[in-house]
């Protein structure tokens, strides 16, 4: 009927002009680049920082403070993005990141520097999810693959540019402080562009009062999740490097992590239909679950390789930190080319799953070659795989669920990198120390404390070849082999993804679904009533059997959930809408 066409509602927002979109996207790329850069730029500056503050015992906290807050608050930011406008929340993340960078740059003590790293990590936890949501509202779905592929390119460039810039700043008059000050002008560009150019039209759930708002942010979930992740990362950070794995401190951390994480899982199950930070209907969705597994594997493989390949060059090949950064350029180029090329092909073909399968296979193959030493293939696979799970979330989830879905994937990637960076370090230390103890006439303690560039200087000339061989084996057969194992798990994760196309229509919001359902149902009811009035005027309402009357069981369920009644009604009125309905709440 003509009435059905009139009830169709628009499901896409008005998009800005091409020029404005280009400027906005460039500002987003800057923000992503800064977040990725902040994870790697500090490495070359640590010796200078510890010399100035006399803080050798705090080295682990410079990285851990950032990772703890970055990982711990990702899910909370996803929840905040669900209920609050994207623009101010994203700006708050950028502002916190800038404040943390300023504190680090101006720090006069090691403790202040650690606090600044924690503040910067807190801000960074909301930047990537916010960037995805801004792109969601400024770029049509079928045009996002190429632009989103550039996010992966930003990560790749930053992984190599970070150590190079860190070494350049530390060795110049600018000093190590500009490793953090560089974020201020570049981040300021993003803040200015977003404030002036970005205008978003969003539908957010309406909350009654501040108590209702706090309840929907799931504070108990955050209280359980944040210390759980803290205990896990601290145990991995301290394991083997500072304490043995059977030490009471590490055992206590792992036990507390297990208890708190199980408590978090139970609480999420109990609140799954109301205020859960991670609703089961999102987490257990096929593409979100397998996409999260893929992101964990990609994050673990990429960060492990990007950290330890420069160390291999410095220790085994005897290069400087700057030269090792230059030698890893093939690594970053393959990430950039893989990200852009796969994004362009997805935009052309529509399907992203084939490129995830191809990319994960190349990543596993290349990582395997690294264990025998060949570094030219692995990162192309990383580039092909990295951003496609985020595309899948935008295709298969309703608009209001995208923030949580994106936050889950971002958390998986961050945790993958954090966990396997620590695992790689522990494997390297364990294997290297065992190999050194087998070399007769060698003091292994002094060698373990020496950096990669000082390795050969602290070893007698007659034993250097044996030590270098032990170092090489500890990386290739230990750390890189662990990266190979986790890279192999990315292949079945990619195979589990749904075959969906970015050329399909994005899932509408629940509000739009309900309005469409009610409008179509009301139109059909009016048509039925009009037909009965004209064809059988003598029948009474009591004696006439209703064509739309549900069975008694449905009447009972109708009071429990209006969503179930709407789904039943629509299936009766227009069966074509059955497959496009959101799952009714139980």
Automatic annotation (TrEMBL):
SUPFAM superfamilies associated with the record: MFS general substrate transporter
Sequence intervals crossing the membrane: 18-38, 59-77, 114-134, 146-166, 178-200, 220-238, 250-270, 290-313, 325-345, 351-370, 478-497
A single MF term (Gene Ontology): transmembrane transporter activity
GO cellular component: plasma membrane
Location (main, coarse): membrane
Gene3D superfamilies noted in UniProt: MFS general substrate transporter like domains, Multidrug resistance protein D
Coiled-coil segments: none
Residue ranges constituting the Major facilitator superfamily (MFS) profile domain according to the UniProt record: 24-500
Keywords assigned by UniProt, alphabetized: Membrane, Transmembrane, Transmembrane helix
Pfam families for this protein: MFS_1
Location(s), subcellular: Membrane
Topology of the protein relative to the lipid bilayer: Multi-pass membrane protein
InterPro entries in the record: MFS, MFS_dom, MFS_trans_sf, Tet-R_TetA/multi-R_MdtG-like
Stated name of the protein: MFS general substrate transporter
